[in-house]
Every structure is written in C-alpha cells, then in structure tokens.
Amino acid sequence: MRDRKHYKFTRKKQSKRGMLACAVAAASIFALIYLILLSFRQKGEGGAYLGGVGILALFAALAALVLAIGSLREEDSFRGFAVASMLLSVLAAGAWIALYAAGFFLA
Fold first, then answer.
1. Calpha distance 45→67 (Å, rounded)
2. The overall pTM is greater than 0.90
3. Number of H helices, E strands in the chain
4. 19/16 Cα distance (integer angstroms)
5. In this predicted model, what pLDDT tens digit does every residue of 10-56 receive, in sequence order?
C-alpha cells in the first residue's frame, strides 16, 4: 500500500457565529442544570428569581438556535461548529420548553 499524505488547501474558516451559538447554547444548558439544582435545594420555593433567570436562558437558547441556523448558511466555512451548535441549541431550547410546559400542565 502506498502511504500518501494528502493536503488540501482551502480558504474555509471556522464559523464565528457557529462558535458563538455553541457557547450560548452550552451556557443555557449549564443554566438549566444549575437552576434545577437550586430549585431542588430550595424545595421548589425558588420564586420569581429562578423563573426569571430561566426565561432569560430560554431566550438565550432560542437566540443560539437563530445563530446556528445562520451559521449553517455561511459559505466557505467548516460546518463542525455549525452542526454542533445546532444540536446543542435544539437540545437546550427543547429542554427549556419541555420544563415550562410540564410546569404549566402539571401544576
């Protein structure tokens, strides 16, 4: 077998919007976990403070989803961060929406 090294020269760059969307979605997921732990620690009596921070994290997840969609449409960019940010933002937004829907329907 021949051992050939393949080099591919390209002008593609990492998508800055994809990286930003990935960071925002990850922050939203960490906020979800942290707020759930705080709510358990306070035995469900977190009040409006935890709810308000949760709403902000939901909006951050939705903003990350919009950024991720925009990063997928960029040309001449690698798609690694764009796909990862899309998956993370859908996961974060879906988890927040499911949490609030469960709160509305089960309370």
1. 34
2. no
3. 3, 2
4. 5
5. 676 777 787 888 899 999 999 999 988 988 888 877 778 888 888 89
